[in-house]
Amino acid sequence: MRVFKENNNIFRLLSEAVSEGIIVVNKEQVIVATNGFANSIFGYATDELVGKHLDVLIPPKYHHSHSVHFNSFVANSEKRHMGKGRELYGVRKDGAEFPLEAGLNPFTIYGTDYVMALIIDISERKQQEKEIFDLNTKLEHKIEERTQELHDTILELKEEVRLRKEAESRMKESLKKERDLNDLKTKFLSMVSHEFKTPLGGILTSATLIGKYTTVAQQDKRERHLTTIKNKVKYLDNILNDFLSIERLESGKVNYKFSKFPLSKVINEVVYNANMLLKDGQRIRYPQDIDEYTIEFDEKILELVLSNLIHNAVKYSAENTIIDVQVHFKEGILTFKIIDQGIGIPEKEQKFIFKRYFRAENALLDQGTGIGLNIVKSHLENLGGRINFISKENVGSTFIVTIPIESVNYHS
Ligand code: ADP
After folding, report:
1. Are 102 and 118 in contact (CB under 8 A)?
2. Which H/E stretch holds residue 382?
3. Is the CB of residue 372 less than 8 Å from the CB of residue 249?
4. What is the pLDDT of residue 6?
5. What does the pLDDT read at residue 179?
């Protein structure tokens, strides 16, 4: 202690030049010297701290642990930075606590040990650190909020894109339908001019001739022409029905009606109508033992399918041939086979046969629109059925239709 008193001026001179607070204590932790900075950090007047226990500068709650640290420090006696990994606090004269940083330097003068502590008040730095920390936290929150907002916006955009795509594909679909229908109408007009001309000419001739047969004896001639007229009207009616069918299929307006009906009713009707179209010596062979079969299906569609296939078989076969109609039921599948001995379908054209308006080269001499098979296939597929064929040019064709039927009921 005396050393510092005696050399007060030297100590002061040296220590005032340092920009840190300096506190020197002896082994008993009694303060022996301070510099101006230390006094002003802790709020004391010059030399007011000298002779006081170091504890006056340490918040009471740290007194005990500080003493332990101090003693072990003095025992080890090495220069070091104090409070590594810990927050250090000092207490001012007015009782206010503040954070500080301290570097400790032990030294010995004239055989007495001292410790010099270099003190920096880090309140301001801590405050700045806290502000930075608060700012960072705020920023992080803001980023989180923005990220969430961005995420929400992306979701909204995705939904918007999805809705737009949906609307676009709906629009494309309806545009396509409109185009197809327009196309259909154009085709219809050009086909009407071709396909309707011949039968209408035939009807006109027959009607004119009927007018000329005036006697009772000519009744059979009149009847023949009436049959021709009926057939040609039926033919034109079929074409119109086909077109209406396409329009309904295209615009999705088909309503299938399921009902229970005897299979023989449809077959007899179709065969009856087809018989009127037979060429000389042609014959339709059809099952006679199906009177008791009752099935549940769309009757009109079954009629359309069978009459299309049987009419084709008649149309594309020569005189004196047989058209075979076969019906089988096995494991929930009803199968129809329409077998002819006609012109057949050239192999290279077989893959196009269900395409709308397609007509094979060898069929062009016969009248036709190329619509029938296309409609038949569409309806069948809509109802879970299928159509296939096997054909050989100049030998004949077999068209096979299968439809799922839960059961065929027999009634006696
Ligand atoms: P259309 O008979 O009015 O031309 P379809 O759609 O019924 O139209 O038939 C398409 C084409 O398939 C016909 O033009 C013909 O070339 C071929 N076709 C269909 N059925 C037969 C058959 N039984 N024998 C030979 N060719 C056939």
Report:
1. yes
2. helix 372-382
3. no
4. 61
5. 86
Task: Name which residue sits closest to atom 13 of ligand 1, judged by CA.
Answer: 359
Q: Which of 304, 316, 366 to mutate to test the pocket of ligand 1 (most atoms within 8 A of CB)?
A: 316
Whether 218 has a pLDDT exceeding 50, the answer reads yes
Q: Whose CA is nearest to atom 16 of ligand 1?
A: 360
CB distance 359 to ligand 1 below 6 Å:
yes
How far is the centre of ligand 1, averaged over its atoms, from the C-alpha of 252 (Å)? 25
Q: How many other C-beta atoms are found inside a 10 Å radius of the C-beta of residue 181?
A: 14
Number of C-alpha atoms within 13 angstroms, CB side, residue 412? 0
Q: What is the pLDDT of residues 191-201, one digit of tens each?
A: 777 778 888 99
| pLDDT at site 410 | 65
Q: What is the pTM of this model?
A: 0.58
Positive or negative, the Cα torsion across 66, 72, 77, 81?
negative
- Distance in angstroms (rounded) separating the CA atoms of residues 241 and 237: 6
Buried b (16+ CB within 10 A) or exposed e, 261-292: bbbbebbeebbebbeeeeeeebebebbeebee
Q: What distance in Å separates the CA atoms of residue 82 and residue 86, rounded to the nearest whole number?
A: 9
- Cβ 372 under 6 angstroms from ligand 1: yes
Mutate to test the pocket of ligand 1, among 304, 314, 345 (most ligand atoms within 8 A of CB): 345
Closest atom of ligand 1 to CA, residue 342? 24
What's the rounded Cα separation, in Å, for the pair 346 and 189?
Answer: 29
Mean pLDDT of 328-349: 95
304 CA → ligand 1 middle, Å: 15
Residues 385-402 have pLDDT tens digits of 999 999 999 999 999 999
| C-alpha 312 to ligand 1 mean position (Å) | 6
3-state secondary structure of 297: strand
Residue ranges of alpha helices (H) inside 108-215 are 123-195, 197-212
Residue 190, pLDDT above cutoff 80: no
Cβ of residue 369 lying under 6 Å from some atom of ligand 1:
yes
Over residues 136-183, the pLDDT tens digits come to 999 999 999 999 999 999 999 999 999 999 999 999 998 988 887 787
First to last CA, the chain: 135
